[in-house]
Amino acid sequence: MRFPDLLDFAWQVVRGNRARTLLILLAMSIGVAAVVVVSSLGEGARRYVLDQFGSLGTNLLIVIPGRTATGGVSPGIVVGKTPRPLTLDDAYALLRSRAVRKIAPLIVGAGDVRWGSRIRESVVLGSTAELLDVRRMELAQGKFLPPGDPHHAEPVCVIGSTVAREIFGATQPLGEWLRIGDRRFRVIGLIARQGQSMGFNTDEVVIVPVASAEALFNTDSLFRILFEAKSREQIELAKEEAMTILAARHEGEHDVTVITQDAILATFDRILTALTLAVGGIAAISLAVAGILIMNVMLIAVSQRRREIGLLKALGASGVQVRAIFFTEAVLLALGGGAVGLVAGKLGQLLIGQLYPTIPFTAPWWAVIAAPLTAIGTAVLFSVAPARQAAKLDPVLALSRR
């Protein structure tokens, strides 16, 4: 039997058993679509995280109080000690490094923001004028925090677009006075809409001078120190010199952690890639279920097609050719189910993308290739038993239905 004849024969069988064909196509397409949709969720999360950190610039480094040991646990926590606080003087000491371009000390707190009778709780950031460049932020109106002595507390603030809309409504916020806690701040700038970035929504923050934040929250301890290397090639040098400078200021103790953006990205990339592979593998289990369905259906088909198989063998078809017929049917069903599944998976991906437009959902190339190939492999694998059973039939007994 020539291959075109084999293909035509298998196609006639597939078309002639529409209920069986539709059942197998449904099972296969669900499995392939599940792999595509689930892997696109994982890949979308990975790209979203990469984009978020990428928007901060490529030379960013962060100083965190406390020395992080293996596993991400600070030794101070284990022995009941709190990490030595970072101060403004610590932050500006980093400018001694020949590899550091700018620094931005950061204090983070929360407070009630009031204007007239309107009030909302908001995240309050204390920093300096350099935060605008270090964090790659943009202004929609007005100006950012004034440069100058960071120890001088000025009653000014810059607000996010959501704060401006909910507090001021249609009123122009520039020049108005906001009350945060027991202090008043004049609004001098409005941050351009940026959304979620690095753990908080910049549209919902109020930024005040770092000295004002120290007075507002009654603390001289910094939450983080953000600083920028002069070039990508100097990131490691900036990290090493920052560790040396801070150790010298902290009585020789290496009690801070300096992390680079590349290290954060690499960690997230590994975690989310592993997660994508894991959930894709779980979704692929449904393809094994579809393969079992193919095996059961074909085993039933063998008993129903005994006379057909007996006639083929009586006309000279060998056992190999009979097995090839069953394998060809399985491949045709898998191809059809894979094609339908890819279309359904793509539609599901587009639907999720419409619901969450900020996340770049897209199926990775390996999932688009692996899903239909797995469907074909599963179909062929589980059609081995029915094909062997059909090939062993005796033509005389098959034609006589014995």
Automatic annotation (TrEMBL):
Q: What InterPro entries does UniProt report for this protein, alphabetically? A: ABC3_permease_C (IPR003838), MacB_PCD (IPR025857), Macrolide_Exporter_MacB (IPR050250)
- Coiled-coil regions in this chain? none
User: Any keyword S-adenosyl-L-methionine?
Assistant: no
Localization per record: Cell membrane
Domain MacB-like periplasmic core, chain residue ranges per copy: 21-242
Residue intervals passing through the bilayer:
21-42, 277-303, 324-345, 365-385
User: PANTHER family recorded for this chain?
Assistant: ABC TRANSPORTER PERMEASE YTRF, MEMBRANE COMPONENT OF TRANSPORTER-RELATED
Its protein name is Putative ABC transport system permease protein
Q: Which species does the entry assign this protein to?
A: Sulfurisoma sediminicola
